[in-house]
Amino acid sequence: MKIPVTGYVVHSDDSNLDSEHSHTLFLTSWDGRPVHRHHFAGVTSINDGHDHRYAGTTEPAPTGVPHNHRYFTVTFLNDGHKHEIRGVTGPAVPLPNGGHFHHFQGVTSVNGSHPHSHKYSGKTSPSE
Fold it and tell me: In this structure, are residues 54 and 120 in contact, taking their beta carbons and an 8 Å threshold?
């Protein structure tokens, strides 16, 4: 199955990679529909005597159809370590004046001098 995708590529000239280089692909539409992202941020549960703040942006998803977003970020440093946060949002929740948001929740990766994880949950920013 072929799905038409539009977007643009940004060249990254990283001199640390010797003769190699990389590109970043920014999608602008998927199957003829514009794509969008959401910001998310919050504070994890307290575990092992501390919490962690986090912030990130979801992966793009098509606009105007039922969808979820994948997300990934790393918490801010606290108590000498960080944790990974990753998952898939819940479905879009419509807003009364248009747009939508998504719920997300999960458990961080295990890390720290006393290995532990933290719970997290929240709502993404609204779509525009």
Answer: yes
